Backbone:
């Protein structure tokens, strides 16, 4: 009996993968094995960098808060310590936005902490 292969399903699977690798450079976009490896690697990078993105934004917020607080003669660690002691519940994202875009409101927060 001859070997039976499901060409329809195989072609659909390959087309689906090659559609996701469209825009890659060279053989990574149109050769099945190379494209498969490139897509897997891309998914690994995407997973890893979703975590890195969170880290980088937190670093940026801390730098902005530190720069804003230095104008009032405090360091970042002193400021956060005093905020926790006073029980003020503002996260770093909001504090960084206040320091950058609303200096009067940030000044009020710093004065309430001092």
Residues:
């Amino acid at each position: 009996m001859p070997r039976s292969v499901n060409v329809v399903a195989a072609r659909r699977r390959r087309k689906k993968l090659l559609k996701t690798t469209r825009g890659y450079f060279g053989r990574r976009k149109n050769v099945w094995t190379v494209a498969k490896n490139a897509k897997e690697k891309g998914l690994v990078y995407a997973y890893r960098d979703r975590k890195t993105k969170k880290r980088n934004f937190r670093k940026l917020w801390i730098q902005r808060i530190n720069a804003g607080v230095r104008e009032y003669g405090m360091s970042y660690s002193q400021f956060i310590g005093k905020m926790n002691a006073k029980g003020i519940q503002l996260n770093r994202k909001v504090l960084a936005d206040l320091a950058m875009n609303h200096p009067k409101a940030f000044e009020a927060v710093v004065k309430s902490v001092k």
Remarks:
- The chain is about 75% helix and 0% strand.
- The domain at 7-113 is CATH 1.10.1900.20 (c-terminal domain of poly(a) binding protein).
- The radius of gyration is 26 Å.
- The first helix runs from residue 7 to 20.
